[in-house]
Amino acid sequence: xxxxxxxxxxxxxxxxxxxxxxxxxxxxxxxxxxxxxxxxxxxxxxxxxxxxxxxxxxxxxxxxxxxxxxxxxxxxxxxxxxxxxxxxxxxxxxxxxxxxxxxxxxxxxxxxxxxxxxxxxxxxxxxxxxxxxxxxxxxxxxxxxxxxxxxxxxxxxxxxxxxxxxxxxxxxxxxxxxxxxxxxxxxxxxxxxxxxxxxxxxxxxxxxxxxxxxxxxxxxxxxxxxxxxxxxxxxxxxxxxxxxxxxxxxxxx
Amino acid sequence: xxxxxxxxxxxxxxxxxxxxxxxxxxxxxxxxxxxxxxxxxxxxxxxxxxxxxxxxxxxxxxxxxxxxxxxxxxxxxxxxxxxxxxxxxxxxxxxxxxxxxxxxxxxxxxxxxxxxxxxxxxxxxxxxxxxxxxxxxxxxxxxxxxxxxxxxxxxxxxxxxxxxxxxxxxxxxxxxxxxxxxxxxxxxxxxxxxxxxxxxxxxxxxxxxxxxxxxxxxxxxxxxxxxxxxxxxxxxxxxxxxxxxxxxxxxxx
DNA sequence: CTGTCGGTATCGTATGACTTTATCGCAGAT
DNA sequence: ATCTGCGATAAAGTCATACGATACCGACAG
Lengths: 253, 253
What we know:
The structure is a homodimer. In chain A, 65% of the residues lie in helices and 3% in strands. Chain A is built from eleven helices and two strands, in the order H-H-H-E-E-H-H-H-H-H-H-H-H. Chain A has a two-stranded antiparallel ribbon. Chain B binds a DNA duplex through residues 16-18, 41-43, 52-56, 58-59, 61, 72-78.
């Protein structure tokens, strides 16, 4: 699955060699090609699979270790860690998921988390926003209505809208969850391949109502409307997920 | 500030040399000793400050890069990244905060996030819990009442109680936020140095009420009671934070 | 069958050399 | 004098090699 990635700048540098190795390994892990067993022996991997020095390989492994994907111990080897010790909220880990087949349960989990966090964030944004915050949110909204549906500029504006709201909440930990929101938005746009006009109009209206509540400084209203937005987004995404599931039939045991 | 750390197993291995270097650098960054400027030049750092090989140093830097704390670029050097690109929700990053002076704004942010997430998680736990989940939650509660206040076993039971609830919600992304909940609990226990009996009784009662709602499978009730628990915890923590602030007078400009 | 012991494979650390990259300053042109 | 471009340079990136530390595993003795 090859996808354009509109993610926020992540910490991984794909220009560097170790970054490419890290990405390659990470995708193999996340897509389940290697389970919770052992990775390829260092030597064999180095020589045969990818021609890269031990330094680059080790730094890639350290990178993955920091994100909880692998655990390296002397003698026993470098093993893939169990999934519940992965940092699923890490921007890189989230973006690597786009390289693997869609995991319906995981996407549902992400939306669920988002439905807990983003309405509350919208409430705070309505109460705490500065003029600069509001301008940024409005800029995002206008970027959505001034560009054609599903254009790259539109998607970026959508992401910017939600990020601006999280920023307006004035809570540093909420901003770390921006990557979760971005991921859900990208999944939803990715799954519905652009052949629906009705959903798009609904989404636009949802955004307008949230913006309106934030302008009014009405926290409860903003929360309720953001909640509706997320719910709508989830429902359409689930619809398309079901379709994709029927097409691909990726039977999940 | 030296503190016992009851955190979940993090990805950093303090037994290894690179891990010690990473921790040392991370604490210096988080506590603000080095701002957003440049780190010590590789060479000078290697030779003088810490006597360690380039390998270990580089792997430590890669580790921090993965968590967004630093950005390394050829020629310009390895710089400390701006705070809003740090992975504040990473278990290691959270635990490193305990080595620095308490940052009141950050602790408030953590509690705020927790107040958004944990009540919703309690709701899901009430609806989705398996028998094993419930047993785990109950085990945590009994560990709290069967041990003396503020004993290590009690603290561990408290953490286990909340982690079990997050696990019972059957959402993998919520489990990643367990480190946030742990961090807030540890901050609150750390700040009130054990000389309060009233708060403790209140806290115990809050826990009992949450457990009761989960047993009844009443989602709304569980959410409301968890919300009350978090609010109570935040209030007492803020009280002690104010005291500590007066004592230490760590004037924040 | 059990327990100790050594071999061995793998990760951890150290070192030195070379490559790539991006910044900065100098020189030349406009 | 300002702008443009090119090269010197410094720092990270990569490679190769060597040795130390560790824990698994099989063999051997009790």
